[in-house]
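Good morning C.,

I know you're traveling, so I'll keep this short. The sequence:
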Amino acid sequence: MEPRIDLMANETGAKIGKRMINVGLAIQQSPLPVTVQHLVLLRVSQINGCGFCVDMHTKEATAAGETPVRLALVAAWRETSVFTAAERAALALAEEGTRLADTHHGVSDETWAQVREHYDDDQVAALVALTAFINAANRLNVIVRNQGGSYQAGMLANLSS
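The tokens, ready to paste straight into the viewer:
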């Protein structure tokens, strides 16, 4: 299966892509712990079936020092003992924020309370933005059929402007 279009080779697509990368950079530079960012990026990408993003975020998390065990277990985080309470709260928010069409309540009050227990306002803002951002990126990649497997850690670092 070949990609339908190379968005970064298209003038309009490249403008949008660079702006999205800059949004991602602002989130990366936020006070939200990098470990949490990697876990959320990976989990949401798994839910959305974005092979390109699962590949990217697994490799970026590995390069940042995340363990193979935690990466392997992120899809089943509720049934594991390897994630902190703060990470679990972030993963719950990310999942509920991703599966909006599957539920009538969006992010539950219980999940929101757990997130507020562990994160300050700036971190919450980054977590909410990260969840929305990765959902948008997943959809772009799935729609154009970008495939996973060839990503190398740091590959997109030079695209911001």
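Safe travels,
E.
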